[in-house]
Design goal:
By secondary structure, the chain is an alpha+beta fold. Helices cover 28% and strands 24% of the residues.
C-alpha cells in the first residue's frame, strides 16, 4: 500500500463512533459485494490468503505504530474465517496464530503450509496436531537493517507454480541491509531500491531476482505465469505502477539518489539504459493484486488484473495486452467505495469468490476498525471456471535468451538491437555471465552501437573490476546512448579519474536534454558528492539532485560549450535576478538561440532594471524579429512606445505588439490605432488580433469543444506559440516543462507532438479533466482554518503530516494537527477555461507549437 503513515487527526476522532455501512459498488451489474466480516470480529486487516478448503486466513494488525494506550493485543494475529451464515457473514471465526510482530502479508505454499511475511522475517506456521492453531514456527528468511519503519522493509510474498518462494523488500530508507537465508546465504546491499528475491520453501538457494523498486507492497503470479508486483511511487515521481518482474530486471529506482525519484540517475518507466518499463499505471497506495482468471468471473473479465487502490477507495481493473515479450494495460474503476473503504489485500477462493480486506479508516495507528468484503458474480450469470496457474512465464524467447550459451552469440547480438526492452534486457543479462566476459570486452568496439551498448551494460552488470580504461574510450563513443550509459557507470562508481573525459563528453555531437541531465548529475557527483560518499559509503547519505548554481552559470557563460548545452543550462538556472549580468550579456549575443532563451528568461521575470533592456531591444529594428517579439512578451503596453510597432515591417513584431497592447485596450489612443490598422491590414492574423483587442466578445470564439477543434485544425506559427507557452498570461509554463524549462506539476511537453494530434491537444486544454494520467492526479489538503492546498503526489508522513508537490516543484508539508481533510481531486489540477485567456490566434499558435514538439 504504501500503507503510508496514515496519521490524519480527523479519522482518529471516528474511532469508537458508528460508521455508515457503505457497500462498495461494482461498475458492472453482473457482480455483487457483501459484507463477510466486520469489527470487532476483524480489525485493521492487511494480508489475506485462502487455503484449499476455502478458509480465509487474514493477518490482523496490532503492532503498526499502535497509539499510546492501545487496548488491543500486543501482537498481530492471524484469524481464520470459514463458511457463510444466513446473514452472508462468516459462519465461524478463530485465531490461528497470535504472536506475529509487524506482520505484512501471508501466503500458502503448494503443500498447504502458511507463510507469514513480517517486517524483518519470513516464517512458516504449521498446525501439526490439527486443533486449528499453529503450533510450529520455522524461520525461512531474515532481513538485517537499521530501518524501523515496517512499510519499507519486507512487504509481500507469493509462491510460483513450481514451488519457489518470492519475497519483496521496500527501499529501507536507503540504509544498509542484508537478506539472510536459512542456510546462512547473505545478499547485502546499500543505496539501491527495493528488490525481489526468491528461495526454496525451506529458505535455501536464496537469489536476487529484480531490483529498482520503491516499495513493492504485493506480488502475485498471474494465470499465464508472469510475476507481477504492485509498486508504490517515490515522493515526487509517479505513477504507482504494476510491474512485470523478470529475472535480473532493473526497474530504475535508487535510494542513494534521494527520495523524490527525480534524480537523473533514477528511472521509473525504462527511461535509462538497462532499466525496464512498467506494465500499467496505478492509483495512490496500491496494496494488493490478483488475476481475475483465478475467480469465477464472466468470460469477458478473464485475464484482467484487479488492484486495490487504498488511497482512492477503489479496486481497479487492468486488462493487460501483449507488448512484445511483456504486457501493457490501462485502468478502469472496477469497484468504488465510500470514504471509509480502504481496500488492502485481495484473495481468490477455490469457489471463485474474491475476498477484500478493508482497513476502513485513514488512520495508520491501529484503530479497532476493520471489514472484509466478498465479491462474487451474481447467480445466473455465466462464468468461466477459475484457472490454474501456468507452469512458466509465457515468453519462450525471453527464456531462450536468459539461457543462452556462447554458441548463441549471433542471436544475442540481434536481440540487443530489438525494439522490445525486455528482449534487450534478456540479452544483456545473458552476456553478463562470466562465460561471455571476453566477448563483451571485444564487442565494446563493435560497429553496431546497440551491440556496444549491450556489451557496456553487461560489463557494468557483472561489476567488471577495471572499468576506467574502458570508460575512457566509451565516454568518447559517437553514439549518445553509449555515452549516456558510460556516464552512469562513471558516476555510480565515483570514478573521479575520469573527470577530464566526462567534461569533454558534453561537447560531442548528439547531445540530448536527457544526456545533458545525466552529464550534469555525473559532474555533480564527481565534484561535490564523491568525497562524502567515498568515505565508507555513509549510511543514509544522499546525492544532491540540484546542481550548484555556479556550475550552471559557468556552463552558460562558457562560449566553448555547444549552444544546446548552454541553453539547457540556462533553463536550469534559478531566478533570473541573481544572474542578471550574465543574461543581459547573452541578450547581446550573436547566437540567436542563446539570445532568445536569455530574453525569454528576462521577460518571464521583468523588474525595474530589466524593463528598459527589453523595451530598447523591442524597438530596435536592427535586432532579429523573433528577439524583438520575445522582448515584448515581458512588457506591459506603453502606448507611446508601442503603437508604431503595429506598422513594423516584421509580421512577428506587429502581431506581438497587438497582443501586448491588449493590456491597454481601454486607452483611446490604442483603440484608435488598432481600428486604423485593422481597416488597412491585409494580414488575417494581425486582423484577428486587432479585432480581439477591440472587442473580445466578437472575435469568433467557439462555445464547444468540437468548434475549437475545427477552428484549430490547421495553421498557426510554432515560434509565436513558443512565446505564448512561456508567457505570463497563458500559465502553461507554470506547470509544464518544455526543453528543460518550466514547472513540474504537469507532464513534460517537450515531445508531446509525437503522441498527441491537434484535436487531442485542443481537448486537453479546453476540457483538461477528460483524461488525467494517474501520475498527474491532483490532490487536495484542506486545513482546519479553511485554507486549501492543491498539488501532486499526496503523501502521508509518519509523525509529520501530509505533503504535496506544489506548482513550483517544492514540497509543501502540512502538520497533521492542522489537517481537516485530504484526498484525490475529482477534477484535473489544470483548470478548465485556459483558452479564454488567449485570443483565437494565440491559441492556434500554441497548438501549432505543441504539435511541432517532437
Amino acid at each position: 500500500m504504501k500503507l503510508p503513515p496514515l496519521l490524519l487527526a480527523l479519522a482518529s476522532t471516528l474511532v469508537g463512533a458508528e460508521l455508515p455501512l457503505e457497500i462498495p459498488r461494482p461498475s458492472d451489474g453482473r457482480f455483487e459485494v457483501t459484507l463477510y466480516a466486520a469489527d470487532p470480529a476483524i480489525v485493521t486487516p492487511i494480508g489475506a490468503a485462502v487455503d484449499a478448503r476455502g478458509r480465509l486466513f487474514v493477518l490482523e494488525s496490532h503492532t503498526h505504530l499502535a497509539p499510546r494506550g492501545y487496548a488491543g493485543p500486543r501482537r498481530d494475529r492471524i484469524k481464520v474465517f470459514a463458511g457463510t451464515g444466513p446473514d452472508g457473514r462468516a459462519a465461524s471465526v478463530s485465531v490461528f496464530a497470535d504472536d506475529v510482530n509487524e506482520g505484512m502479508n501471508v501466503a500458502f505454499a503448494p503443500d498447504g503450509t502458511l507463510y507469514v511475511c513480517a517486517a524483518q522475517e519470513v516464517f512458516a506456521l504449521a498446525d501439526r496436531d490439527g486443533d486449528g492453531r499453529a503450533d510450529s514456527r520455522r524461520s525461512v528468511l531474515r532481513l538485517e537493517t537499521q530501518q524501523t519503519y515496517p512499510h519499507s522493509q519486507l512487504l509481500g510474498l507469493t509462491f510460483s507454480p513450481d514451488g519457489w518462494l518470492y519475497v519483496s523488500r521496500g527501499n529501507v530508507g536507503g540504509l544498509p541491509y542484508a537478506w539472510v537465508g536459512a542456510d546462512g546465504t547473505r545478499l547485502p546491499g546499500y543505496g539501491d531500491g527495493g528488490d525481489i528475491v526468491r528461495c526454496r520453501p525451506d529458505g535455501t538457494e536464496l537469489e536476487r531476482i529484480a531490483t529498482g523498486f520503491w516499495n513493492p507492497f504485493d506480488l502475485k503470479f498471474d494465470a499465464a505465469g508472469r510475476l507481477l508486483a504492485a509498486d508504490n511511487d517515490p515522493d515526487s515521481r509517479g505513477p504507482n505502477r504494476l510491474v512485470h518482474v523478470v529475472p535480473g530486471g532493473d526497474y530504475g529506482y535508487r535510494a542513494l539518489y534521494g527520495t523524490t525519484g527525480l534524480h537523473a540517475y533514477q528511472a521509473w518507466d525504462g527511461e535509462l539504459p538497462g532499466t525496464l518499463p512498467y506494465a500499467a499505471a496505478l492509483g495512490e497506495s496500491p496494496s494488493g493484486l490478483v488475476d481475475t482468471a483465478f475467480a469465477a468471473f464472466p468470460r469477458d473479465f478473464v485475464h484482467g488484473i484487479l488492484v486495490t487502490v487504498w488511497g482512492e477507495h477503489t479496486v481497479t481493473l487492468h486488462r493487460l495486452r501483449p507488448a512484445g515479450s511483456s504486457v501493457r494495460g490501462d485502468a478502469q474503476i472496477f469497484l468504488r467505495g465510500g470514504k471509509h473503504f480502504r481496500p488492502v489485500a485481495l484473495a481468490a477462493a477455490p469457489d471463485g469468490a474474491i475476498f477484500i480486506t478493508d482497513w476502513v479508516l485513514s488512520d495508520y495507528p491501529n484503530h479497532g476498525r476493520g471489514r472484509i468484503w466478498k465479491l462474487v458474480t451474481r447467480a445466473g450469470v455465466p462464468t468461466a471456471p477459475p484457472a490454474r496457474p501456468a507452469a512458466a512465464d509465457p515468453s519462450p524467447r525471453l527464456a531462450a535468451l536468459f539461457a543462452a550459451r556462447p554458441t548463441d552469440l549471433p542471436a544475442l547480438r540481434t536481440a540487443l538491437a530489438d525494439a522490445d526492452p525486455f528482449v534487450r534486457h534478456a540479452a544483456v543479462t545473458a552476456l553478463a555471465r562470466p562465460a561471455f566476459r571476453d566477448v563483451a570486452l571485444r564487442d565494446l568496439t563493435h560497429a553496431d552501437a546497440s551491440v556496444r551498448l549491450g556489451a557496456l551494460l553487461a560489463l557494468r552488470r557483472m561489476a567488471f573490476a577495471e572499468p576506467v580504461p574502458l570508460l575512457r574510450a566509451l565516454l568518447r563513443d559517437p553514439d549518445a546512448g553509449v555515452r549516456q550509459a558510460a556516464l552512469l557507470w562513471t558516476g555510480e562508481n565515483l570514478l573521479t579519474a575520469l573527470e577530464p573525459e566526462v567534461d569533454a563528453a558534453l561537447s560531442l555531437p548528439g547531445l540530448t536534454p536527457q544526456l545533458f541531465e545525466i552529464w550534469l548529475a555525473t559532474v555533480q557527483i564527481l565534484r561535490s558528492d564523491a568525497a562524502q560518499l567515498q568515505a565508507a559509503r555513509v549510511p543514509g547519505a544522499r546525492i544532491k539532485r540540484a546542481p550548484a548554481p555556479e556550475l550552471l552559470a559557468s556552463l552558460v557563460a562558457d562560449e566553448r560549450r555547444p549552444t544546446l548545452a548552454r541553453t539547457l543550462a540556462l533553463a536550469r538556472l534559478g531566478a533570473a535576478a541573481p544572474h542578471r549580468p550574465l543574461l543581459v550579456g547573452l541578450v547581446r549575443s550573436s547566437d540567436p538561440v542563446l539570445q532568445l532563451r536569455a530574453l525569454a528568461r528576462l521577460a518571464a521575470e521583468p523588474d525595474a532594471e530589466i524593463i528598459p533592456v527589453l523595451r530598447a531591444l523591442a524597438l530596435d529594428r536592427t535586432q532579429p524579429a523573433e528577439a524583438r517579439a520575445t522582448a515584448l512578451t515581458g512588457l506591459d503596453a506603453v502606448a507611446a512606445d508601442f503603437l508604431p510597432l503595429l506598422d513594423d515591417p516584421a509580421p512577428a513584431v506587429r502581431i506581438q505588439a497587438a497582443r501586448t497592447l491588449r493590456s491597454a485596450a481601454a486607452d483611446p489612443r490604442v483603440r484608435a490605432a488598432a481600428a486604423r490598422r485593422l481597416a488597412a491590414s491585409p494580414d488575417p492574423v494581425l486582423a484577428s488580433e486587432l479585432a480581439h483587442l477591440l472587442d473580445p466578445a466578437r472575435s469568433g470564439r467557439p462555445d464547444t469543444l468540437a468548434g475549437w477543434q475545427q477552428l484549430m485544425a490547421d495553421g498557426g506559427d510554432p515560434a509565436a506559440g513558443r512565446r505564448v507557452f512561456f508567457s505570463r498570461g497563458s500559465l502553461c509554463s507554470q506547470c509544464h516543462r518544455h526543453d528543460g524549462r518550466g514547472g513540474q506539476v504537469g507532464p513534460d511537453l517537450s515531445v508531446i507532438g509525437r503522441t498527441a494530434g491537434r484535436a487531442q491537444l485542443v481537448q486537453s486544454i479546453v476540457n483538461p479533466s477528460d483524461d488525467v494520467a494517474p501520475q498527474f492526479q491532483g490532490w487536495e489538503i484542506r486545513r482546519k482554518s479553511g485554507e486549501i492546498h492543491t498539488g501532486l503526489q499526496g503523501h502521508l508522513r509518519s509523525g509529520k503530516g501530509i505533503s504535496l508537490l506544489g506548482f513550483d516543484g517544492a514540497e509543501l508539508l502540512v502538520p497533521e494537527a492542522e489537517v481537516a481533510d485530504f484526498g484525490a481531486m475529482a477534477s484535473s489540477l489544470m483548470p478548465a477555461g485556459l483558452e479564454k485567456l488567449l485570443s483565437p490566434e494565440e491559441f492556434r499558435d500554441l497548438v501549432a507549437f505543441l504539435a511541432a514538439s517532437r
